[in-house]
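Run log, item B.
One chain of 368 residues. Sequence copied directly from the ordering sheet:
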Amino acid sequence: MIEIGRAKRATRVYSFDDIAIVPTRRTRSVGDVKMSWTIDALTFDFPIIAAPMDSVMSPATAIAFGKLGGLGILNLEGLWTRYEDPTPLLAELAEISDPVSATRRLQEVYAEPIKGELITERMRQIREAGVPVAGALSPQRAVEFGPIVEKAAVDFFVIRGTTVSAEHVSSVDEPLNLKQFIYSLDVPVIVGGCATYQSALHLMRTGAAGVLVGFGGAATRKTRNVLGVEVPMASAIADVAAARRDYLDESGGRYVHVIADGGLGRSGDIAKAIACGADAAMVSTPLARAEEAPGHGHHWGPEAWHPRLPRGERATFGPVGTLEEIMFGPSHTPDGTMNLVGALRKSMATCGYTEVKEFQRVEVVVRD
């Protein structure tokens, strides 16, 4: 703890930029490194999830990501469940360069109501392609559309918000009883974000299969600027990993996966997230740079189109390669934005680890 003046004490925390991974005395062949990740009954070829953002995941890109061996999550409050064909709107948004005009137009297009039949149709489309199916709702929409999602036979139901609490209190409306809601579903649930030991422990006690750590895509969210809320990711993941360990003892052996969700703009950040204790990483910014990305070079999260308090401008950058190249290479950039799986594999091999779970034990140091 450190003192801030005479009346306030605070914990020192660290971001990914503040830490570095330390190689061990032993190195491994890259070919010996196993990247698979198993959660619930499904095994994926690598521990990277595509975030449920309209600029990253459409039904087509979710299918493509699934065929590459990963899990792509569709935003069930996005344009694909509000419009039969949102591609003209996505093209229109890509032509708006002024940030204020873009925010206003985003608010307008997202004012269209969500349609339950489109949720069913989008999930069916992904399922019929033969890849894992996952959809995301905010806690505010979970009760309303949850039954539709469950009937759509999804493999994972994601409840994702800026900060999700297992003990939300409201005198205005009936709050979501997260524990009761999750136990009523016949589908594994991934829930978050959270950033502290205690909040993560409470979410794990709801019966969730996985807990998201963080506040989502750092390139598109400005929660710190608007609300003053932020916990740097290295510290947040380490605290939630401690909650996972203690809950494992408390529950008699029930393992809840820790999934980093935010601040993962480059491949080195993914390696550091796992080194801090994450089982997997949910990425958005690198995938928004794909040629197939529905954002057409722009990237935004759900806070960007909030009708009364938008908390994030669109990020804008040009594509760097195909979705496959961003995940597996070959990389044409030296900055960690391509070949994410290859970079993680190389990091593990450099440090002498062949299993993702083992890599959580790697030594890290803090920069001055």
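Observations after the first pass:
- The radius of gyration is 20 Å.
- The longest strand covers residues 189-194.
Flagged for discussion on Thursday.
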